[in-house]
What does this fold into?
Amino acid sequence: MLNFVVIAQDSSENRQNTDFKAVNTKKTSEVYENKYYKFQMKLPAGWNKISADDSSSMVKLAKEFDTNITAEGKKGVERSIENSTILLHYTKHPLGTRNNSVLIGGVEKVENNDATTREIAIASELNFKQNFGHKVVKPTEEINLAGKDFSYFTLSQELNGVTFRQRMYLLKLSNTEIFQIIFTFFNESDLAEMEKAVKTLEFTK
It folds into this structure.
């Protein structure tokens, strides 16, 4: 799952890493549109668009990142890195800011999987609990977004003395592709901004 980027980013920022510069971000009030996957979503006004270079840097950092995840969890991160495509990546504040809320979306290719969206979400929730040390704040539920039946769950984790939460929305596009939108947040107001954004999601023809 795409949380490997979020883990890498939060680890870097809470260590006051200055490798990621604000010059590589820009404020936005735009609508993100993806013609290949045929969807669009209005983004939170004033958030920062992360450059492809910085997203790639976070992927590299994720490969080196060592936390309390299990050996199986590390294998999962490596598989996810190999098979995931980041489509959109935005942060509340410029990179390098501590406790920075994140909105990220992408698609992960998986082996032929006939499980339902809900079954995939439940398995993912369990994986984070068992292999990444996350606590389940809100177990898997369903929500209709843009006429599609997504599943989502909410987790919490402490990293470098800071507790953050993640909400993960999943939608099975096919037996080999999982669409994901992930929030990382430190307060309810940032969560509300991202919830408002995801409710503008539209799938185009």
Observations:
- The two ends are 27 Å apart (CA to CA).
- The chain has five helices and eleven strands.
